[in-house]
Amino acid sequence: MNPASWRQSSYCQESASCVNVAEGEHNTILLRESEHPEVILSTTRKRLRALIRAAKAGRFDHFPES
């Protein structure tokens, strides 16, 4: 993947660990963490949208202790 195609939020500070996003093949979305760019996750737009909506709704705010 061309490094120029990765996007990072303008809210991300230069020394911070940030999530990068890119458009992949076959209409997929690629995600990686800036500190470990070699690890790339792939998802669909629909699934990423559902994850973001759930996070905004607070569904991940409280996980039970294991």
Structure summarized in a few sentences:
By secondary structure, the protein is an alpha+beta fold. It is built from one helix and four strands. The chain has a four-stranded antiparallel beta sheet with strand order 1-2-3-4.
Commentary on this structure:
It is a single chain. With 66 residues, the chain is an alpha+beta fold. Helix content is 18%, strand content 33%. The protein contains 1 helix and 4 strands, in the order ββββα. It has one helix at 45-56, and strands at 7-8, 19-23, 28-33, 36-44. The chain has a 4-stranded antiparallel β-sheet. The longest helix has 12 residues, at 45-56. The chain is globular. 0% of the residues are buried.
Low-confidence stretches: none
Helix segment count?
1
Helix proportion range: 10-25%
Class by SSE composition: alpha+beta
Q: Number of DSSP strands?
A: 4
Strand proportion: 25-35%
Strand order of the largest sheet: 1-2-3-4
Shape: globular
- First-to-last CA distance: 38 Å
Q: What is the succession of H and E elements?
A: EEEEH
Specify the biggest β-sheet: 4 strands, antiparallel
InterPro entries: DUF397
Pfam families: DUF397
Domain DUF397: 4-56
Organism: Streptomyces niphimycinicus
